[in-house]
Write a structure and sequence with these properties.
By secondary structure, the protein is α/β, with parallel strands linked by helices. The protein contains 8 helices and 8 strands; from the N terminus they run βαβαβαββαβααβααβ. α7 (173-183) runs antiparallel to α8 (188-195).
Length: 217
Amino acid sequence: MERDTSQIEKKIILDLKSVFDKKVLEIGCGSGYLTKILALTAKTLTAVDPDQNKLAIARRDKAAYPIPVQFLQLSGEELLIIQDNSVDVVFFSYSLHHHTNPEKALAEAKRVLAPGGQIILIEPRADGDYCRFLEPVHDERVVLAKADRMIQNFPCSNRSYRVYYVDWLFSDKQDLLWDLRLNHPGSDKIINERLSKYPDDRRILIKDKVVLWTLIL
């Protein structure tokens, strides 16, 4: 699987002036995909995720990070050792809707931000092709709506957003099937039904509709 084949998301993140030469905290870094992009412009970068297996993958590829990155196994709801007013930007990488309590995660982000700091969030849209494709095995409509409400009601001095599309390119049906089984085990029957309309030996392109929010405190 190849992600963001058009490089639109990478360009958008690299164009974020608020991240350039700043102390950045990434919440929900996963295996480090967006971490590598943030490291191209950040002054310092701390990346957290509660999943130790994904963190191990992110740490493994040290050569891909142009600056040293501190990886910590933490949830956005309990940032614990991150000090108050210690970072310039908190960046949620497709992660706010994964929190049981997104409101608490946003409150923690506010706590660690220095005065005048920014919270940047990338969230998938429930009406995008990829989310709709996954609905039978992983329906995120409720949690995405909850996260969206939290973002729109969060007190800040300025709030803006941008909607764009990210390409997910799979080499063939088996590549897509492997990815779905890895992330959503035990759903083979539903997955195979969803894949029946795709040819066996051709590349499959699915567009993910996402929104990038910027909250200035």
